[in-house]
Amino acid sequence: MENEMNNISDAIGVIAQSADTVFILLGAIMVLAMHAGFAFLEVGTVRHKNQVNALVKILTDFAFSAIAYFVIGYQIAYGSHFFVSAETLGADNGYQLVKFFFLLTFAAAIPAIVSGGIAERGSFRPFLFASAMIVAFVYPLFEGIIWNGNYGFQSWLESQFGAQFHDFAGSVVVHAMGGWLALVAIYLLGARRGRKPGIAFAPSNIPFLALGSWVLIVGWFGFNVMSAQTLDGISGLVAVNSLMAMVGGTVIALIVGKNDPGFIHNGPLAGLVAVCAGSDLMHPVGAFVVGGVAGGLFVWVYTKLQRSSKIDDVLGVWPLHGLCGVWGGIAAGIFGQQALGGLGGVSIMSQVIGSVAGVIVALVGGLIVYGIVNKVASLRLSQEDEFIGADLAIHKIGSTNSDK
């Protein structure tokens, strides 16, 4: 009888482990699909002569990020590596391998975010190398501090303020990190030639822009819900909070953006960026407010940036990911409180300090990596290449062909 009970228990354990592996694998696939969203959002926003480059950057950045994260980054963040036998790696249905795949899709979002900011004048291979360095060293440093408790930062916050920095799905760890890294690159590059403050280049293809937005929106439910990483941790609260933040961002962007389709399709993304951190804590009404604030924040700051002669952020990735990500980190400490309908267990001070720490790591890391790469090989296209467009200058082909 005892042997039978043990056999049943073992079988249940195997099924549970298999279910967890499938769960996180589905999440990895959904977030992988989000990279198509990044690609088409950029394709639709940039001018026609830079569409091919937008597509190529997202795919090649992902490939180089995968190598950098597999060889170096994952070990820095979590202290684990993959240079052991396949038999060892395949233990527990290969759960640890699939977990790496899932977390890689987050890491690779960093260069995908940066890509939208430096579009139309960023050189190809220098930025590809810089992306690999950031995913190998800069991103995993902060990722490990927050999500693996490295260097005692989280323990210090808990001892000082009663709670660790809470970032369930990466408002700060992923999005703010990417947005503030992009700001450094954008500043170093300067504005596109021919761009004048207050006069923006029109998007080349609104349908592609909208397609990119929708792919990101759908994939984001894998980004947020599957951040539980195990099936028993899944929460419908995360899903509905993500939904309500997306809706809030859309509605406010519609109103503040005065029906502009670019704002309307970026508003939901702003809301989803902001809700990542506290999506497992907030009440859906709180999530709607957080998303709405993010949608308005994006429209307002992006509009202001159009008048800047130094900050030429093509897709608005700094306000969308950088500022809305920081807002999300802080908002988790506000709307996660029980007094505002949340589950509690968060500290506003820890959220502020953790969010600021993410910004500092991004700015310092970006200045080091982009600064060094720019000394070795210019981050900016030549004047002639920028004029003819990255598609012909780098890839020797345009995005469409009307020959008959």
UniProtKB/TrEMBL annotation:
A Pfam family hit: Ammonium_transp
SUPFAM superfamilies in UniProt: Ammonium transporter (SSF111352)
Keywords, sorted A to Z: Ammonia transport, Membrane, Transmembrane, Transmembrane helix, Transport
Domain Ammonium transporter AmtB-like: 22-396
Matching InterPro entries: Ammonium/urea_transptr (IPR029020), Ammonium_transpt_CS (IPR018047), NH4_transpt_AmtB-like_dom (IPR024041)
Top-level taxon: Bacteria
Subcellular location: Membrane
Bilayer topology annotation: Multi-pass membrane protein
Chief place where the protein resides: membrane
PANTHER family listed in its UniProt record: AMMONIUM TRANSPORTER, AMMONIUM TRANSPORTER SLL0108-RELATED
Family: Belongs to the ammonia transporter channel (TC 1.A.11.2) family.
Protein name (Swiss-Prot/TrEMBL): Transporter
Lineage: Bacteria, Pseudomonadati, Pseudomonadota, Gammaproteobacteria, Alteromonadales
